[in-house]
UniProtKB/TrEMBL annotation:
Gene Ontology molecular-function annotations: ATP binding; GTP binding
The protein, known as: UPF0042 nucleotide-binding protein
InterPro entries from the UniProt entry: P-loop_NTPase, RapZ-like, RapZ-like_N, RapZ_C
Binding site for GTP: 57-60
Natural source organism: Herbinix luporum
RapZ C-terminal domain mapped to chain residues: 162-281
The organism's place on the tree of life at top rank: Bacteria
One Pfam family linked to the record: RapZ-like_N
Domain RapZ-like N-terminal: 1-153
SUPFAM superfamilies: P-loop containing nucleoside triphosphate hydrolases
Binding residues for ATP: 8-15
Alphabetical UniProt keywords: ATP-binding, GTP-binding, Nucleotide-binding
Nucleotide-binding is among the record's keywords: yes
Length: 283
C-alpha cells in the first residue's frame, strides 16, 4: 500500500494536489484531526485501498505538534508512509492571498506576512521529514500536475531541487526573487541590427547572431561550471529552489538566447528545470 501525507504551506497548492491524486486513483482525506490519525492509519492498513493520501496542515492548530510523535510511532510500528511537502516563497503566497482575498489561517490581525512566517516555523519539523519537497512558487498547475504524475503515477525518481532560469531586462529592474544575477550586456546587441531589432531570442536568426560571438560560448561554459559546482552545496544547505536570472538591456535578445542555451545544458543534470522570459513581450 502507498500512503502519502500531503502537507506544506497554506496557499502552496495542497488542495490542488489532493484533487490530482484523487484523479489518479488515490483515496484522499483532507484535514483529518490529529487525534484521529492513528486510528485512520490502522483502518487503511486493514482496508481495501492500496493508494491513500492524507492532507494535514496548520489548520490542525496546537495538536499539530503531536504529529511528530505520531509519525515516529508509525515508523516504529512498521507503517509505511511518505511525506509530500508543498513549499512556496513568502512573496508569492502574499500575492495569492491578495488575489483570493482570503485570510491566512494564522494571520489573526490581518498581517499575512506574519502568519506565513509563523506557519513556516511550526511546519519546519514536517519539512525536515519530507520525502519530496515541491516548490510551487513558479509552477503552473499543469507543471505541478506533471510532477505529481511523475512521482505518484509513473513512480519515477524525483530530485527535490528546481532551477528557475529567468531572462530579464535591466531597464525593467532586477527580479526580486533572483538568487544569482548575471549581466550579459557585454555581448554584441542584435537590437542594432535592423532585421533583428523586432525579433527575439526565440527566433533562430537572433540566437544564431548571439551565439556566433565567441564570448557567448565562453560565458555559457563558465556559467555551467559554476552552477554544477554550486547546486550540490545549495542542496546540502537545505535549499530546494534556485532562481538564476540572466539580464540584458531590454530582456528580448541576448538574455533570452543565453537563458535558453544554459537551460538545455542544465537539463542533463537531472534537476527540475523551468525557463521563463520575463520581459520578452515588453517594448
Amino acid at each position: 500500500m502507498r500512503f502519502v501525507i500531503v502537507t506544506g504551506m497554506s496557499g502552496a497548492g495542497k488542495s490542488s494536489v489532493l484533487k490530482m491524486l484523487e484523479d489518479t486513483g488515490f483515496f484522499c482525506v483532507d484535514n483529518l484531526p490529529i487525534k484521529l490519525v492513528k486510528k485512520f492509519v490502522k483502518l487503511i492498513m486493514h482496508g481495501h485501498h492500496n493508494k491513500v493520501a492524507l492532507g494535514l496542515d496548520i489548520r490542525s492548530g496546537q495538536y499539530l505538534e503531536e504529529l511528530d510523535e505520531i509519525l515516529n510511532d508509525m515508523k516504529k510500528a512498521g507503517y509505511p508512509y511518505e511525506i509530500l511537502f508543498l513549499d512556496c516563497s513568502a512573496e508569492v503566497l502574499i500575492k495569492r492571498y491578495k488575489e483570493t482575498r482570503r485570510l491566512h489561517p494564522l494571520s489573526q490581525t490581518g498581517r499575512v506576512d506574519k502568519g506565513i512566517e509563523l506557519e513556516r516555523e511550526r511546519l519546519e519539523f514536517l519539512r525536515k521529514k519530507a520525502d519530496v519537497i515541491i516548490d510551487t512558487s513558479h509552477l503552473l498547475i499543469r507543471e505541478l500536475k506533471a510532477h505529481i504524475d511523475k512521482i505518484y503515477v509513473e513512480d519515477k525518481q524525483f530530485k527535490n531541487f528546481m532551477i528557475m532560469m529567468l531572462s530579464f531586462g535591466f531597464k525593467y529592474g532586477i527580479p526580486s526573487d533572483a538568487d544569482l544575477v548575471f549581466d550579459v550586456r557585454f555581448l554584441p546587441n542584435p537590437f542594432y541590427i535592423p532585421e533583428l531589432k523586432h525579433k527575439t531570442g526565440m527566433d533562430s536568426q537572433v540566437s544564431n547572431f548571439v551565439m556566433n560571438s565567441e564570448a557567448s560560448g565562453q560565458f555559457l561554459d563558465k556559467l555551467e561550471d559554476m552552477l554544477t559546482f554550486l547546486i550540490p552545496h545549495y542542496i546540502s544547505e537545505g535549499k530546494n529552489q534556485l532562481v538564476v536570472a540572466i539580464g540584458c538591456t531590454g530582456g528580448k535578445h541576448r538574455s533570452v538566447t543565453l537563458n535558453n542555451e544554459i537551460s538545455k545544458r542544465m537539463a542533463g543534470l537531472g534537476y527540475g528545470i523551468k525557463t521563463e522570459h520575463r520581459d520578452i513581450e515588453k517594448d
